[in-house]
DNA sequence: CAGTAAGCGAGACGGTACGTCGGGTCTTACC
DNA sequence: GGTAAGACCCGACGTACCGTCTCGCTTACTG
């Protein structure tokens, strides 16, 4: 399972990179041929790795989700204050250099289960801890707050990936705004 | 512009309604035949009104944009306080009963020019007036703030249209959070 | 039935002329719009007169058949010798200035019943009289001979209408060849 | 050019056979779907081989033309007397079991260039040789005579393919009539 | 002379065939 | 054995034409 698995992973990775490239250039109209050609791979091989277009998109989304999840894990969210956690989450998500992040974020092939486990759950925990510590005003449900925060981040990441604003300012603005709004006063 | 125009508008409207229905049921895989059948119209007529799939989606998006624009216009944003304007904008956008709002919000066929004129510009004016009156903290550019607010609203409208949260709570939460965050203290 | 009928006939005639013109220019790919436009008539009127494309073609064919029939009738075939009758038939058929004769002869919309009555029957009679008078060799069935003669004429008229050879020479050649071949020796 | 070419040829042949079958059954109203279905082939494949309806008809015509050409070649026209050559040509052409011969003869998709090279030219040579040998009366141009002969044959083949007369009688009648007519006396 | 009925042009409409294109399956040959 | 090349089937897309229909407009007939 050593080399083979590695080779498989490497080929899959090449394909995913190519797909990211093609999708971010041509949008959702990109076809499987372009992906295969860009990956330097036959169309058959492409279908062997990803049995359908949807599967490919899902895998791309999955990879992004895993990236974000890893960043969140590295951020040690459990061990810092609520405010700092919010800052870190924001930077973690906005800081991604999405190859086709925006596209996937537009909902092309989103895979919700893993996204929930790897992204939503850690964020929810942060909100729960913040609530326990009395750092969050209690008028709104945690569910709603965390969902809104996520959407806020999605919006911000779109701004960044479309070069409408730079990452630093946007992250700072999002964190500040959200914290000021959400903070118990 | 009399009867003929009305008839054209009526047929176009029937088609757009059907498209909304089909798209919200089958998602982006819905085909033109389904739309035509649901509209009770021949495929040729469908193409006579909307010369391509993309044109149809654009028109749907356009209609949503115009709806929002009309609501914003009726909201008298110019004559109320900044805070009240933010509340009204939020309710205006979240209060839409999107037939396929979510789909369009996902960016399937978005038409940016009209959206800017009818939605972005009034909102930007509100922010500008708020800034002049000193109601907004000056650390962030107005551009960034208004963009973030829009994305925030988009996120919220997704939550509502996907029944994750109800409209009233979401609108109130968005307005409150955003105002608390944005307000000059 | 007087004026009305005349008007009807005149309009129908204009349409048939236009159809002949269009068909001989564009071949069988000509569409009804072209015919209507060339006739200076609305498409609806065209369909009022000829309820289908096929009906139009049939009518065109019918008109040619009637023309030929009239010529044959004027030729007094019954009262001349077999040889002279053959000559007259040949000239009658080749002498038509087919507007779209060739096309119809190609079989686009041929109406066989009238053709038989107006064209085949007189010709067959000529052959029968010729046989009775012993002017025709008896080895071949009259049926076959007359059919072959018709086809021979069709071929010749194609040559003429496509300007491959002129009418006089062709008619003379056909009559002479056929008579020499068919004559009892 | 080995197997691949053979496969291509085989598939093309299957399609042409199917087209012949469908066309002779449904006439010129047969659609490409029927052809593809009858051939047991997808419509896309049909269009890969014959990029348009017209191309398919042309290919069918071409195949008939080649068949006739081959028969004429096998007939050794150069080495027999003029009379025998005329007999052989007649039998060669009338003897074809047209799958959709009549249709093509009706001129649906006729390809004139090859027809001239493979059919007209050998026949013309026969006439030229006949003229040199003094077997043909000199009053008519060879061009006209050969054209008329061709048309005569077309007429006869129509009679045969439409079962109006049988092949043997028709071929004998055509040859005899034409020879008697054309022969120098 | 006014009213009406019938024919007409214009053009929208439903339906269907055509030709293109992309997705997904499969075979063949290569390495 | 995995891969590249590519043929194949399926079905959607967008176009064009056919035949039907409705709408006003003109025109000619009628009271």
Describe this structure in words.
Four copies of one chain form a homotetramer. Chain A is built from nine helices and no strands. The first copy, chain A, is mainly alpha-helical and 185 residues long. Chain A has two domains: 1-51, Homeodomain-like (Arc Repressor Mutant, subunit A), CATH 1.10.10.60; 58-182, Tetracycline Repressor, domain 2 (Orthogonal Bundle), CATH 1.10.357. Chain A starts with a helix and ends with a helix. The relative contact order of chain A is 0.11. Chain A binds chain B through residues 106-107, 139-141, 143-145, 147-148, 150-152, 154-156, 158-159, 164-165, 169-170, 173-174, 176-183, 185, and chain B through 106-107, 139-141, 143-145, 147-148, 150-152, 154-156, 158-159, 164-165, 169-170, 173-174, 176-183, 185. Chain B binds a DNA duplex (31 and 31 nucleotides) through helix 1, helix 2 and helix 3.
């Amino acid at each position: 399972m050593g080399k083979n698995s590695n080779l498989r992973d490497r080929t899959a990775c090449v394909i995913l990179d190519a797909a990211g490239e093609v999708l971010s250039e041509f949008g959702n109209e990109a076809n499987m041929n372009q992906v295969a050609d860009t990956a330097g791979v036959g169309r058959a091989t492409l279908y062997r790795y990803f049995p359908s277009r949807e599967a490919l998109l899902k895998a791309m989304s999955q990879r992004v989700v895993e990236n974000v999840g890893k960043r969140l894990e590295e951020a040690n969210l459990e061990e810092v204050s609520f405010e700092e956690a919010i800052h870190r989450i924001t930077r973690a998500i906005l800081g991604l250099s999405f190859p086709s992040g925006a596209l996937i974020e537009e909902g092309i092939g989103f895979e919700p289960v893993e996204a929930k486990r790897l992204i939503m759950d850690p964020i929810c925990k942060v909100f729960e801890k913040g609530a326990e510590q009395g750092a969050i005003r209690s008028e709104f449900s945690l569910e709603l707050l965390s969902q809104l925060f996520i959407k806020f981040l999605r919006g911000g990441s779109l701004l960044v990936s479309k070069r409408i604003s730079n990452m630093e300012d946007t992250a700072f603005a999002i964190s500040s705004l959200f914290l000021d709004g959400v903070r118990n006063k």
